[in-house]
Amino acid sequence: MHPTTVEVEASLQLVAPDSVTLPVRSSLRYDPTDPYAVHVLFHPDGGSGDPVGWSFARDLLVSGLNEATGIGDVRVWPWSTPHGEVVALALSSPDGNALFEVPRAILVRFLRRTFAAVPTGEESRYLDVDAAVGRLLGPTPRPE
């Protein structure tokens, strides 16, 4: 039996430059066929359109629960706010930067479920290396 995908709906808080926070409908996703990564999907208002996704190492989130971690495009650190304990998630791209607050309790529950699906050290058992190599070496789509 293969483990199932773990997905948790969450309202992340976008921290605006004036320190005001705005709720953003999001979900945290873990697919055992991509066992080293977690995905954050940001859902546009009204549910129309495709979600915008970020993927990064599951271990980065785990480390970020207790200490500042990450460099470059994704950084994570614990953060206390007047509303409780959160984890800061800073995302950077050529299009801009965004800082989000993720409720720590939601993140801990999500990570526990991912480790129940694929325990630490067992990730390689869930990789389909042949399929990954096939995608890398397969035909490249031609531009239209």
Radius of gyration: 17 Å
Q: Please count the helical segments.
A: 3
CATH class: Mainly Beta
Tell me the β content. Answer: 35-45%
**Helical/strand content category:** alpha+beta
Describe the strand arrangement of the main beta sheet, using strand numbers: 4-3-2-1-7-6-5
Q: What is the helix/strand order?
A: EEEEHEEEHH
What tags apply to this protein structure?
Transcriptional Co-activator pc4, Chain A; 7-stranded antiparallel β-sheet; 21% helix; globular
Structure description:
It is a single chain. This protein has 144 residues and is an alpha+beta fold. The chain has one domain (6-137): Roll (Transcriptional Co-activator pc4, Chain A). The protein has three helices and seven strands. Strands 4-3-2-1-7-6-5 form a seven-stranded antiparallel beta sheet, with helices on both faces.
What's the layout of helices and strands?
Elements: E1 6-15, E2 21-30, E3 37-42, E4 52-57, H1 58-64, E5 74-81, E6 84-93, E7 96-103, H2 104-117, H3 129-137
Antiparallel strand pairs: 1-2, 1-7, 2-3, 3-4, 5-6, 6-7
Task: Write a compact overview of the structure shown.
It is built from 3 helices and 7 strands. By secondary structure, the protein is an alpha+beta fold.
